[in-house]
């Protein structure tokens, strides 16, 4: 300690410069720490924004509970979509209709053939032939695109109409 006091007495300017250098280093360090603290306070304020003053732990717990609920809803939605996709494949949604005159003595295109089937070609062809003496109705089933009996020209035309739009499956007789 005596050596330090001797040095201070012999060169007070150097001691002053050393003290100023240490003081400046402390001021820079305190300033940097204050800026970091402000940055942390700003981050904390953004984190707590909208959390109605609760603590972060309760905020995270609420977030996790909401996430689990959304995952469950998403899983349920996927299951429902898969079920709907299965149902839509079997929905009879392709329809073609042809009106025609079945007999020479009856006009007005009162007879008709209608084809109704699903994505896999399962369905039916219904034909109604209207004449002066009566009306006849015929039904032919379609399984995997194949009819169970021979199709008439009008029935084939009804199938052509049903398959005319792009993306519909073609049923072959």
Task: Describe this protein's structure.
With 173 residues, the protein is of the alpha+beta class. It folds into 3 domains: 1-49; 52-89; 94-163, no CATH class. It is 53% helix and 19% strand. The chain is built from 4 helices and 5 strands, in the order αααβββββα. The chain has helices spanning 2-10, 12-48, 56-89, 153-163; strands spanning 94-100, 111-117, 123-130, 135-143, 146-147. It has a 5-stranded antiparallel β-sheet. Strand 4 (135-143) and strand 5 form a beta hairpin. Helix 1 packs across helix 2 (12-48). The chain is rod-shaped. The termini are far apart.
In short:
The protein has helices spanning about 1-10, 10-50, 55-90, 155-165, and strands at about 95-100, 110-115, 125-130, 135-145, 145. It is an alpha+beta fold and about 170 residues long. A 5-stranded antiparallel sheet has the order 1-2-3-4-5.
Instruction: Kindly report the spatial arrangement of strands forming the biggest sheet.
Output: 1-2-3-4-5
User: How much is the average pLDDT?
Assistant: 84
Radius of gyration: 44 Å
- Treating each run of at least 4 consecutive H or I residues as one helix, how many helices? 4
Reading the helices and strands in chain order gives HHHEEEEEH
Unreliably modeled segments: none
Report the end-to-end length measured between terminal Cα atoms. Answer: 114 Å
Q: Output the structural class.
A: alpha+beta
Query: How many strands, what sense, and barrel or not for the largest sheet?
Result: 5 strands, antiparallel
Total number of distinct structural domains: 3
Report the count of strand segments.
Answer: 5
Query: Which geometry do the CA atoms define?
Result: rod-shaped
- Helical proportion, percent range: 40-55%
Share in β-strands: 15-25%
């Amino acid at each position: 300690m005596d050596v330090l006091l001797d040095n201070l007495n012999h060169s007070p300017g150097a001691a002053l410069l050393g003290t100023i250098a240490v003081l400046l280093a402390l001021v820079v360090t305190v300033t940097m720490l204050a800026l970091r603290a402000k940055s942390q306070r700003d981050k904390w304020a953004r984190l707590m924004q909208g959390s109605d003053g609760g603590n972060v732990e309760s905020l995270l717990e609420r977030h996790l509970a909401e996430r689990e609920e959304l995952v469950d809803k998403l899983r349920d939605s996927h299951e429902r979509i898969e079920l709907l996709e299965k149902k839509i494949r079997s929905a009879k949604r392709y329809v073609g209709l042809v009106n025609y005159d079945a007999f020479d003595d009856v006009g007005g295109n009162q007879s008709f053939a209608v084809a109704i089937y699903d994505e896999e070609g399962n369905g039916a062809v219904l034909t109604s032939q209207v004449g002066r003496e009566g009306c006849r109705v015929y039904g032919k089933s379609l399984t995997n695109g194949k009819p169970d009996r021979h199709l008439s020209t009008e029935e084939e035309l009804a199938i052509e109409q049903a398959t005319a739009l792009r993306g519909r499956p073609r049923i072959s007789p």
